[in-house]
Amino acid sequence: MTDTGGGADKAEGMPDNERARKEIRPMTALYAPAPAAPATDARTARKARFALPLRRIRPESVLLASGAALLPWLYVLARTVPSTAQVGHWNVAWVGLDALEALGLLSTAALRGRGDDRHRLTAAATGALLVVDAWFDTVTAAPGGELAMAVAMAACAELPLAALCTALALGRGRRTVRDDPRLTPAKRLTKR
Asked: Is the pTM of this model over 0.70?
């Protein structure tokens, strides 16, 4: 039994803070999370059985294995894919790619304008799309004027925008005097 009046504790010479700790412990036990119940249905048991091995797989290992597996696949593609092909919905493919680029550029500008650090994610994705666009524009263009136009677009628009997006994705972003970690708080006040 716990003596809430403190009479027995004071008679024993117990300080008030020890008495408080003695009373708090049983209360914390009331709010402690209950131990997990054993899995009863087969679906929960299966999840529990596969949860542990999946945690041991590191993303770096998956990426390394996937990248290594693509190397022989590149050889297979180079030897088996025909150099020409009839493509349906060619216009839809290019409009879709350019629409994704426009969405990426607009969302990067909006996020950066608001000071949202997520602009780095959209900038990285948009930069990659712009490089892909430049690559496929130039390698699928017919020789002559079409190829010259594709190279001009890549050199003057797509690749410079991709470089800007990459710089935004990797850069430090807007840094104010307040955010500079090299300055002590006193120096930050004087720099404003």
From this structure: no
